[in-house]
Amino acid sequence: MTDHSELSDVKFEKMFEKGDLPPSLFSHEAHLRLAWLYIKKYGQEKAAEKICKEIKQFDHLHGKGDKFNITVSVAAIKMVDHFIKKSESNDFYTFIKKFSRLKSDFKELLYQHYNLDIFSNKEAKTSFIEPDLLPFD
User: What mean pLDDT is reported for the chain?
Assistant: First the structure.
């Protein structure tokens, strides 16, 4: 297997949660896909809680536990949810094709909300920092 897209949504979610998904397949797009799946299944608030728990666990299982960033993960949920509300897509791939900026310009989208570099900020890794420029809707 060379890409997460080779897996059904159910298989992708189960493999990720069990820690069986090879880390090389957990790309930025896979992170967005997981966000999309969780939002569709649980709603934004529960999706944010669940994605943080699962990614943190995945990071500890497959690494040193130092890559997880709560602010980036919660912000990703909020941004994906924003675009879901503008979408009629019933599958992730149609959704991401229409809102490809989530994939190609993710950092640019984040920096519309943050003046702070949330990728390198130590506090952002351990607790969610609210946007200082533009709130999420």
Answer: 96
